[in-house]
What does this fold into?
Amino acid sequence: MPDQNPKDLIERAQKLLNQQRELYGSFDVDSVSISQTHDSSSEPENVQVAKNPIELIEKDSEEKILEDETTEAPVLLDLISKSSTLKELKGICEKAEELRTDLENTNLVFGVGNPDADLMIIGEAPGMNEDLQGEPFVGQAGQLLDKIMKAIDFDRSDIYIANILKHRPPNNRDPKPEERQRSLPYLIRQIELVNPKLILCVGRISATTLLGKDESLKNMRSKFHPFLERELMVTYHPAALLRNPQWKRPTWEDVLMLRTRYDKLGGQP
Ligand code: URA
It folds into this structure.
């Protein structure tokens, strides 16, 4: 398991503590510098140093978060971090009111694919079709995503697909900062449990949420970013490609780079 590695444990603990600090105010805990523990020897040359993903969420959301749930949140965080299978985590997500948006009666869209995948794709939030089927990327954008993956020799069943949000926002609006922040601990645990070698963020919302930097997609794409002892790449969202076909070429360049790195890292299959 990834959390048996001391470096992973320190990083995960630090992130969860940072989140508690944001929720409940400052408290004294000796912090361990991630940079001190990060082994960069196997990194590709074109990497950028990621900040704590929790920090990426806009500050104006801080007071709004879990105002009425001051005693429940630490228990929930503990439960999330102790979940040892995707099934267990999914069970926690099913009961988690904080993962819901203001659209009522939506279905949980947890994630789908190979639970041991070496490549994990992370989108933004479920749309109508995903909500109805309880599966990410099954609509038009999902079909294009499947084609892009096929072009670099991946079947949908080879990879694992999830979103920043696990419930559909109303009118397919962008996920709010506080919604992203509430979902993040669940997603981070999901990433740890799948334990992919590479993560592909499709779209700016996904990338900025995980990388903790408020940059344009253009600036973030075409390179590998270190993320939780893994590497993360960013490219255009397939829905954006449907509206802007001129971005198909850079996306193709990105996914070719991704496939080459995947093979170099010994990704299976
Ligand atoms: N767009 C996303 O970001 N995720 C989905 O699951 C579907 C569309």
In short: The pocket of uracil is lined by residues 123-127, 130, 136-137, 139, 141-142, 163, 239 (CB under 6 Å). The chain has a mean pLDDT of 83. The first strand starts at residue 112 and ends at 113.
